[in-house]
Amino acid sequence: MSDDRDLYAALIGPANASYYMAYRERAMERGYAPLSWHWPAFFLGFFWLLYRKQYQWAFIAFFYPYLAGLLSTVPGLLGVDGLAWPTFTVLMLAFRVGYLPVHANGIYYRWARRRVEVVRQGMRNRPGDQAERMRAWGGTHSVAPWAVGVALMALSMATMLSPA
Hints:
Layout: H1 5-12, H2 17-30, H3 39-44, H4 46-51, H5 55-71, H6 74-77, H7 84-122, H8 127-137, H9 143-161
């Protein structure tokens, strides 16, 4: 495969490009996305995913607490009382503190790699169009996290203020 460094750089955009390009280089050398800690994913999780246009993972991160809540009822269904809250806590910590921050770089790298492959396949012999498509597809979305955050706060306030 040819060197796709320019396409990756166009997809990543200027925000923290050197960080993500260095991770890409490590992944390319190893042949897989290595585990690494990612502080923005640890602190911001869902909002970092929106910012980096990882909408599929943002969807998963948004609905994971509901899945964890559902799964935390299983011990009660099996006749073991008092484990719903500890089960929920362990499931949430496993995802928010364990899985997401450790896999965030890999998630982003695999997403970028798939995008590069799609553009290479669909736009052969058109490097200018490829780079332009990557810039349109990638970069960051600074409005989405704020818009979703404000919408969630407004929804929260609306439910608190509505009469019972």
